[in-house]
Every structure is written in C-alpha cells, then in structure tokens.
Amino acid sequence: MKPTAIGRILFWRQGSLWIGLAGEPSGSHAHHAVQITLPFPGCHARLQSPPKEWMTYDAVIVAANHRHAFEARGQHIAQIFLDPQSSAGRVLQSNYQAQGMAALEDETIKPLIAALASAFESRASNEKLIELAELVVATLAGAANKPAASLDARIELALKLIRKRLAGPIALEDIAADVHLSPDRFRHLFMKEMGVGFRPYLLWLRLDFALTTYVAGSNLTEAAHAGGFADSAHFSRTFRKMFGIAPVSVRPE
C-alpha cells in the first residue's frame, strides 16, 4: 500500500501533531478534532468540502466534525489535531464551526510555521516540536474574538468518567446514571454540548488511544485491543472513517 504520510506523529494531552511528507490523498471524512493544516514554507495543501470545488491553501483550519478531503502529494505538511473540548479548542471551534473550513491568514503564525519546518528538518526533539505546535494553537486561539463557551457541568463530569474507563466497556446508560440523568436526557444533552453523538465521540477517544499505541511500536492487533476495539479490522475501519486513510498507510519515522 502506498503511504499517505511519512514522518512523525506526536501526542500531548489535548492534541497531536502529524508532521512530514504527504503521500496519497485522503478520501472524504469527518473527525472529532479541530484540524490545523500548515504546509511548510513554499508548500501548499488542497482541501475540499463536498460538494464544493478543491481549494489550495497556504494554511487552513477545519472545524471538528466537518466533512472534507485532503491532498498534498509530495508536500511537507504539519497537521495539528486539537481536542475541541480543550480551552483553546472551544475558542477555535466557536469561531470556525459556521464556516467549516477557512484559510488562516494571521501573519503571526507564518514564523511559527517556518520554525516548525526548521525543527522537523533538523530532527529536533519531540518536546520541541510539541512546544511549537502548542504555540501555534495558543496564537490562533488568542487572536480569536469570541469567548469559549463553558460545558454543562454534567457533561464535563461524563467526559472525565469516560476517559478514566476507556480501557474497558463503556455504556451510555452507565455514564448517564453516574451524572444523574436519564439515558434519553443524557443522549440529547451530550449532543447539544459536544456537537457529536456519544458513540462517535467514544470511538474517537478509543481511536486516539489505539493510534498512540500503534505509533509507539505496537502492531495493529495490539493497538486495536489497547483502544478497546474487537480486532485490527475494526480499528482499521474506524481509522479510515475518521481520517479517510488506512492506518497501515501511515509510516512513522
């Protein structure tokens, strides 16, 4: 299988950085993360929001749960995936949700993109690359005008419980009971507050954990079980649905 990306994938508590050489394009997909796409200086990326035409960008942001396709063959790219429930993620999601996808024209991030590119090319430490990625996020969120909306306290508690129990089975009914709501009321409140259903969000968290395990050196089966998937096929199907590519097409350095 031809690679869709060759480079480094780094994780921190509220996001991840995928940085390196882009290969084959992704299919149309949507994921529960704010996506910040930053081509290296002199490079570009093409994105499409069906049924619109493909557009070429020097830098672009895609709101969480917004369907899109991506193509940047032979281009060096930094991709930041940010949890939309983090403090910065809420600000960015609030500002770009209506647009879905928008060019980033803030001049203050250009030197940060150049710094990311230089750090990658000089094989800087993981910590340095993460530091630069978080600085991009902070810069964009700080430039936003709309305040971040606060989550309902019951949903905040639910998210903490979900993350704590991610290694095992998680039922909506159990989480609803723990936050003192009926399953139906919890289901509707979760959708209202998170902008995505309970099951898709849970799959996203499991996928994130499985991918972290895979990048760390585990095989697909081991990564799938670590994330709570039944097998590697289930993990691969979910990965393709979320990112439009197969996990085996991602080649970490």
Compact overview of the structure:
The protein has 253 residues and is an alpha+beta fold. Helix content is 43%, strand content 19%.
Give the arrangement of secondary structure elements.
Blueprint: E1 5-12, E2 15-22, E3 34-39, E4 45-48, E5 55-57, E6 60-62, E7 69-71, E8 76-82, H1 87-96, E9 101-103, H2 110-121, H3 126-143, H4 153-164, H5 172-178, H6 183-194, H7 198-215, H8 220-226, H9 232-243, E10 250-252
Parallel strand pairs: 1-10
Antiparallel strand pairs: 1-2, 2-8, 3-6, 3-8, 4-5, 4-7, 6-9
Helix pairs in contact: 1-3, 2-3, 5-6, 7-8, 7-9, 8-9
List keywords for this structure.
single chain; 253 residues; alpha+beta; Jelly Rolls; Arc Repressor Mutant, subunit A; 7-stranded mixed beta sheet
What's the CATH architecture of the largest domain?
Sandwich
Coarse structural class: alpha+beta
How would you spell out the order of helices and strands?
A: EEEEEEEEHEHHHHHHHHE
Radius of gyration, taken over Cα atoms and rounded to an integer in Å: 18 Å
By CATH, the superfamily of the largest domain comes out as Jelly Rolls
The CATH top-level class label of the largest domain? Mainly Beta
Describe the structure.
With 253 residues, this protein is of the alpha+beta class. The chain folds into two domains: 5-143, Jelly Rolls (Sandwich), CATH 2.60.120; 153-252, Homeodomain-like (Arc Repressor Mutant, subunit A, Orthogonal Bundle), CATH 1.10.10.60. Helices cover 43% and strands 19% of the residues. It is built from nine helices and ten strands. It has helices at 87-96, 110-121, 126-143, 153-164, 172-178, 183-194, 198-215, 220-226, 232-243; strands at residues 5-12, 15-22, 34-39, 45-48, 55-57, 60-62, 69-71, 76-82, 101-103, 250-252. Strands 9-6-3-8-2-1-10 form a seven-stranded mixed β-sheet, with helices on one face. Strands 5-4-7 form a three-stranded antiparallel β-sheet, with no helix packed on it. A hairpin with a 2-residue loop joins strand 1 and strand 2 (15-22). The longest helix has 18 residues, at 126-143. The chain is globular.
